[in-house]
Amino acid sequence: MPEEHLPFSEEYTPGREAYLDFYRKSIEDIEAFWDERARELVWYRTWDIILDRSNPPFYRWFKGGETNINLNALDRWVGSSIFNKAAYYWEGEPGDRRVITYRELYREVNRLAWALRNLIGVKRGDTVTLYMPMIPELPVTMLAVTRVGAIHSVVFSGFSSQALADRIIDARARVLVTVDGFYRRGRVINLKESADQAVAIARDKGVEVEKVIVVKRAGNTVPWSGGRDVWYHKLLDEAPERVYVKPEPMKADDVLFILYTSGTTGKPKGIMHSVGGYMTYVYNVFKWNWDPRPGDVFWCAADIGWITGHTYIVYGPLMNGVTQVMYEGAPDYPDPGRIWEIIDRYDVTTFYTSPTLLRLLRKYGDEWVEKHSLETLRILGTVGEPINPEVWKWYYEKIGKGKAPIVDTWWQTETGAAMISPAPGISLVPLKPGSATYPLPGIVADVVDYTGEPVKPGEKGLLVVKEPWPGMLMGIWGDPDRYVRTYWSMFSRPEKGIWIYYPADYAVRDEDGYFWLLGRADEVLNVAGHRLGTIELEDALLTHPAVSEAAVVGAPDPVKGQVPVAAVVLREGYEPSEELEKELREVVRRLIGPIAVPAKILFVKKLPKTRSGKIMRRILIALIEDRPIGDVSTLEDPTAVEEVKRAIDEFKKLMKG
Ligand code: PRX
Question: How far is the CA of 409 from the centre of ligand 1 (A)?
């Protein structure tokens, strides 16, 4: 691990002591610290208890408080200079552009909120599923839903109809908002068709979506179901032009939204975030991460379908009154310079993206970067995966021209916003390429061994968080036991009143106390910054009649970080073939979505298993990564290892070729 301290311009005089001083004070009395932070926001009623610890790990922040996130994202700007400035510079993939001011956003959210309540019948506490691409109507709809006190569940538009249906069913959503189509690599993706299929699947399972609201984006022909389907623009037309809908007073510990993420079972988890805690955490962390200033143009090049977009394209920036760029399409379309061109067009000051995108753009060659000035960039961020030091340096030198610090943010869907990252908004610590530096204020993180004992500096261990924080998930929708089991059972000692959050990430803390995040410690893959459960993929493969057993593991990939590779045992009567491999990949595409499609299907006669029948994925992983396979004494049939090794060697030859 390289540990050199890189020079910064005067503006970024490294302030390690100043930061650590602030940090230490923040954790001396966590409750007092967050109390003060929450008071910077608008509430209908302040809380009685800052943190209710009476029923751990079901911590409840700002108990007794009442607010609505709209108050802070929109209403507080009414009558201020921010009201007239751009909230979004939006750019469609074909090159069409829109500027939406805070005023326009406020008006449209109010009108949609009015229509949702009065024409569609959305009530406080209802769940509304959003299956939408990166168009301004997505943040508008999220805000309108939370404005009337309903809960949104945004499903990434790259997910398949089956994946959407699973999420509609689990959330029991009666209203779905989608689009006719959107642009991706020059093609129109007919999203309404997938939405309709999902509604049909849900109906078969007894969940009736009563209304489907459709935004007209691409103008393509779509299937239509009279009585059920309504155009978004028609709804808005019916709403009075300057209508005001009072943001529903919500309890701080009501659910603000659900967002599904993958775990170690086949069923995705509906992560619930709270109204008051999420609002407070996101508002503050946004400030710490990006040090927002009046002239800034912020661009988070993620998709709102993931937590990064919820926090850093919708709620965080709007609560800070920041102007943003929002882009609909593929990052390298029509050419690999698209991202850099957009940065120059809007004078972006703060750019936030994933290591995967950086690796992709770097591969295209520096000539694409050099055509653009990029001189306005002031802070650069990354999220979603560990960033390789070489890519970090490229980002720092080539994109930031040695002037912009790299803010590597470690966090998860469950944590609401960044947890470990530099905080130029407080005081920038010297950076080390590949390290997310220190925990943010109020976050008590550590690295421990399997017994829960802190490991020595420089030793690899498991990351833990030892105190609650306001952005933490409230639980898993409809499954409180899974919440306790997944996040709180590894290291907690309830009998001693000790509760420790377990994110399932490997980490190292070095001599200077810097954190280095090293990837997942559970059966979850990180493909291009997207979380995928290996079991989800295996379940999908097992639906094909040819498949008798399947094991999915991650193989290292130079751009995507990891790609799924499946080892599959066929049933009697089926033979391996290219045709069958194609079919199996298609099954995964249909059941989950294109992001989950295995890079390779390895056909094997048997899989390494324990005597009790559990597939030993770690052996496959070791073989793929060229590491010793370790203890195999529990292996049922050692010849299975040879078999898998042969298949993996072939795969590697193929990858090299
Ligand atoms: O393994 C960590 C990795 O992404 C996981 C969380 O995935 P998700 O909930 O989809 O959220 C991604 C965006 C916040 C983590 O458990 N991860 C996230 N950020 C980093 C990271 N790994 C290393 N460095 C990061 N900066």
Answer: 8
